[in-house]
Amino acid sequence: MIEFHLDRGSGVATYLQLVHQVRHALRLGALRPGDRLPTAKEVVAQLTINPNTVLKAYRELEREGLVVGRPGLGTFVERSLGETSMSDRVRLRAELVQWVRNGRRAGLDQEDLQALVATVLGETFREEIA
Q1: Strand, helix or coil at 82?
Q2: Distance CA 12, CA 115 (A)
């Protein structure tokens, strides 16, 4: 079972820290479909945070289709994030290489491309959370 940790000085909302830690555990395979997440009561006791914060994090994970709440039983992992097939990765890499080449032809240097990627990533992930 996952054990949550908080960085109270990070400036990242507590519920988002919980969401990020679950996603990270899913990517690494530390959490697998069928695993139960700690109850809100367990997380509250461990971290001394408001139960609504835990519930908000779990609702976000449920909205993303990563977990499912089962009344009276708990919250369970529904799917993993580490299951991207090798063919998907190869295809995405090829698309990214082509995108970088197009950017270079348009006159962008490495710093420009990195800034553009960072901006788009930030905007995309903020949209998913909103």
Answers
A1: coil
A2: 21
Is residue 60 domain-shared with residue 115, that is, in the same domain? no
Global pTM? 0.66
CA distance 50 to 40: 9
Closest CA to 29 of 79, 92, 94, 69: 79
Report the number of distinct structural domains present in the chain: 2
Residue 67: CB atoms within 10 Å: 26
Please, are residues 20 and 6 in contact by the beta-carbon 8 Å criterion? no
Question: Alpha carbon of 107 to those of 13, 100, 101: distances in Å?
Answer: 38, 11, 10
Q: Tokens 């190869």 appear where?
A: 90
For residues 29-37, average pLDDT: 94
Contact 66, 77 (CB under 8 A): yes
Q: Which domain holds residue 18?
A: 14-77
Q: Confirm if 119 and 127 have CB atoms less than 8 A apart.
A: no
